[in-house]
Amino acid sequence: MTGRLEIDISAIAGNWPDVSGDIAKKAALIAWATPDGADQLRDGELSVVLGDDPMVQGLNKEWRGFDKPTNVLSFPADDFDIPEAPRILGDVILALQTIEGEAINQNKNFTDHLAHLVIHGVLHLLGHDHIKEAEAEKMEALEIKLLAKLNIVNPYAAGGILEEEFIKNG
Length: 170
Hints:
This protein has 170 residues and is an alpha/beta fold.
């Protein structure tokens, strides 16, 4: 049994398609329900922010030292965990123009790509990473498995995002 995940979706910047919030919510719930996640019996809270390139570029520069936009940023909540309370995961922040451009350049459906990036961001908040090759392979395999639950094809197949892009660009 998996705890409930309360998701706050905020469209802060950009002209996001109306379905974006629903897609983000479905993707976040799929990632939360994975057996690889932590504290699955507890309830959780997550914020998903639909932003634009200038907003994400500012955050990327301030927090990561990269003065450029990126597709998704994950900010874990501080470690002030209270065992009896819902687990506060943190924030997943998305950049509309970067995601649109990647979807076009990689010949992907925008909503499929959005779902992938939300899953990627939530997995980071659950403790997954892709800095080391073994971690990257595990995270990529998990993303493929979770996306299949949404009937989304492997984004890493020919023409898909390479893991190195996530490592370089966040």
